[in-house]
Amino acid sequence: MAQLWGGRFTKATDQMVYDFNASISFDKRLYRQDIEGSLAHVKMLARQGVLTGEERDAIIGGLEGILADVESGALAITSEYEDIHSFVEANLTERIGDAGKKLHTGRSRNDQVALDMRMYVRDAVKETDRHLYQLLKVLQRIMEENLDTYMPGFTHLQKAQPVTLAHHVGAYFEMFRRDRSRLSDIYKRMNYCPLGAGALAGTTYPLDRDFTAQLLGFDGATRNSMDSVSDRDYVIEYLSALSTIMMHLSRFSEEIILWNSNEYRFVELDDAYSTGSSIMPQKKNPDIAELVRGKTGRVYASLMGMLTTMKGLPLAYNKDMQEDKEGTFDAIDTVNSCLPLFTGMLDTVKFHKDVMEASAKNGFTNATDVADYLVNHGVPFRDAHGISGRLVLRCIAENKALDDLTLEEFREESSVFEADIYDAISMKTCVEKRLTKGAPGEAAMREVLELNRSYLEESKW
Q: Distance (Å, rounded) from C-alpha 244 to C-alpha 331?
């Protein structure tokens, strides 16, 4: 059992205790961050005169060799080591001798693991942002191609007013753009280096923490050594952002599932992103959307687990904090796999535009526009509302749309109606005359599309 702390103890750790305490089974994925942090630490130690140039070069060569061998598969990370830190240090000492024992000078596992996790999450934030960017590009394409694809907008899951597919999809563009903004904020707040904080109270060695931070791409060193080793706010913030992303994906997935149903028939999913039934040959199931919706719960669970772990911890480091990894790793893996799959599914969806427009008409989504027509011809709104409602009742009884009523039938409810009522309540007119900022009218939407294009260009990967 490779351990870094045996000097104080007179007998071996019980195997069950060792296994329970060990983290190598999951923190092995931090090997790159651990080695990169160690490389920066060693360079700083040599610069400060704590290590000789010869010792620095030997340690750097050994660490780079370990990294290359792990990534090639020549060196396996096994359970004989307690954690990734002992794995690296033990292999380094085996390769270069006593110089390897100087690697840990001026640091503790507390600030080392804080650094590794922070660097790992920092990389994961970038990956999530990249996936969101690709999704936004697909949403933008769908919007540009569907400015005149009319469909019902819903409230309470009931048809409300006509919109366009571009406008509907644009709502999700705004959600995922906010998600990217959250990730950007998290990255800025977390991008400070905890290495050099020691166990909790710094060190007597003449470390240059700002130099270490610079080598590792941080904006600077953390300001309080106790906070440095006990801070997991950035993990909680990231898990919160991931939960919000999954909430948005889940809402969109729910709509895709509804739209794919026989009752809606708004979309047809590509065969590559669908599955069939083992017994019902007619089925084409939206499994990707359903799994994304289902996996949202496990990401929420990771957030709640981390909040619960941290809620009662006194300063500074406590072993409880080892629990920051497995749930976070699972949430990262979940979101960073759901995003590209959802993007691929959406990119290949076929929209049935004629069905969507017919649904808008048959759902009386232009009933408000009938009332507006009357108001514009001098009828008080409350009276106009009643007239429009009675016309809807008539259409329901006769199984027809408002557009299908004859002018005489309109005039039976109000003599104000003229032949121009049909143009006033067409889907095109109903949408196009809504030109306020953020509305579905084409002119308003084109302004949004141009803003989106600029945004994607300015923040492109």
A: 12
Which class for 56: exposed (0-12), middle (13-18), buried (19 or more C-beta within 10 A)? buried
pTM: 0.92
Phi, psi of 24 (to 5 degrees): -60, -30
Neighbours of 377 (CB within 10 A): 14
For the stretch 179-223, pLDDT in tens is 999 999 999 999 999 999 999 999 999 999 999 999 999 999 999
Span of 41-45, 84-88, 360-364 with lowest mean pLDDT: 360-364
Confidence class for position 283, pLDDT limits 50, 70, 90: low
Q: How far apart are CA 358 and CA 150, in angstroms?
A: 9
The predicted pLDDT at position 1 comes to 47
Q: Where are the alpha helices (DSSP H) in 73-208?
A: 84-96, 109-145, 165-190
| Token duo for residue 194 | 């905890």
Q: Give the Cβ contact number of residue 169 at 10 Å.
A: 21
Distance CA 232, CA 321 (A): 8
Q: What is the DSSP string of 276-323?
A: --SS-TT--B-HHHHHHHHHHHHHHHHHHHHHHHHTTPPSS--GGGGG
Dihedral pair phi/psi, residue 439, rounded to 5°? -85, 170
Tokens representing 198 are: 């020691």
Element holding 245 (H helix, E strand): helix 233-260
Cβ atoms 5, 22 nearer than 8 A = no
**Distance separating alpha carbons of residues 294 and 327, to the nearest angstrom:** 17
Residue 279 has pLDDT above 90, yes or no: no
Q: Give catalytic residues, as residue numbers.
A: 156, 277
Two tokens, residue 297: 């719960």
At residue 282, the pLDDT reads 59
Residue-by-residue DSSP string for 86-100? HHHHHHHHHHHGGGG
If phi > 0 it is left, if psi is from -120 to 50 it is alpha, else beta; for residue 382 that is alpha
N residues, the chain: 461
What does the pLDDT read at residue 125? 98
Phi and psi at residue 49, in whole multiples of 5°?
85, 10
Q: Could you tell me whether strands 158-164 and 350-351 are parallel, antiparallel, or unpaired per DSSP bridges?
A: unpaired
Of 241-250, 281-290, 347-356, which gets the smallest average pLDDT? Answer: 281-290
Token pair of 184 as six digits: 């950007």
